[in-house]
Amino acid sequence: MKRFTISLDNQLSAQFDKLMRSSGYTNRSEAVRDMIRKQLETEHLKNESDGDCVASLSYIYNHHESDLANRITAIHHNHHNLTLSSMHVHMDHFNCLEVVFLRGSIQNVTDFANQVIATRGVRHGKLFMVPVEIKQEQHLHEPSSHTHSNPLI
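Above: the chain's sequence. Below: its structure in C-alpha cell form.
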C-alpha cells in the first residue's frame, strides 16, 4: 500500500472532517480512498462505453397508468440478456418500485436504463453502475462455466 501526504487549509480540513464523520467514516484514509474510487468510476463510465459494468436501476411508476406495465415489460424482454434479477415492491394502491440488477456492456445497460426511465409514466428513475471486468470461468469441481464480475477500481 502506498502512502501520500496532502495539505489542506484549516477551513477545508474542518469541512472534510465534518463530511467524513457525517458519512460514517472513522478515518480520513478510507474517506479519501472512496472519494478517489468514486471519481475514477465516474471518469471510466463517462469515457469507456465499450467496457462492462454491473448496475442497479431503480424506478417508480403508477401501475394503473394506461398500458405502462406492458410497455416496461416489453423493454425488459428486449434486453433480457442484461437482467440478473429484479425486485418489485407495491408502495401503495397505485405506485410500484422496481429495482433491476444488470450486467453487461456500459452502453447496453445505459441504453436499457434510458429507455425505461424515459417511458411516459415512469418517475424517479436512477441508474447506479460500477465498471467491472467480466470473465467466463470453468472450474474443475463444477460441470458448467459461470461468470465472474470483478470491479475494475
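Strands lie at 52-62, 83-90, 95-105, 122-137, 146-151.
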